[in-house]
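S1.2 Input.
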Amino acid sequence: MLMKYGTLTQKGVRRNNEDCIQAISHPEENSWMGIVCDGMGGHSKGELASQTVAETITRYWEKHLNYKDDQTKVKKACQAAYRCFSQRAENIGNMEMGTTMVMASIQNAHLTIAHVGDSRCYHFRKKEDCIFQTQDHVKDSFGWEIVARCFFTGRPDVAIPEIHQAILQRGDKILLCSDGLYKSMPPDMLKERVMDEKSPAEILDEFDSLCAKNGDDNYSGILLEILDI
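S1.3 Output.
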């Protein structure tokens, strides 16, 4: 399998960047994994929360490359991440903190997507546009948008990932991003940019410009293109 990808993460107008991204590629194993976590605003140590979850899940994936990418693997990775997350919160005085998470893994031509919260994954296919998009785990509470699933201190019951699997085709593109990216442009514009015949790095450069101009939050993205199966 032949693929290429690019990454983007910026603090935007905020004082610090509470997003964290990780990506690992093993071409000899036909495997790849990318993850985006977005520390939750209004709570302390968002950057620590996102970093802890992203890095723990990435380490789990590295250690279990030979295991089948399935729901059991995803859930065990998230459980390991929540244990580490809880320990770090305890180490700093049981501080209340939280993060969203979205990840995608590729094993041969099999795609696995998992998420909690409102960070998103989009799966684009030529001539069919967006064939899958994660649905945000949010609910309305008196006009406020509340994240219903996430990694949050003292709430292992809401750190349960939603999982989707599919078979990849040549030319498919996978976009992982925090809400700071997709909220900085209309959905049609996001789709048009991703479907451009440009490299992932060039497309992310365009997203960077749009988010810097229109955004009001940190913004991060990982864009992967399948060149051949």
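S1.4 Remarks. The chain has five helices and 13 strands.
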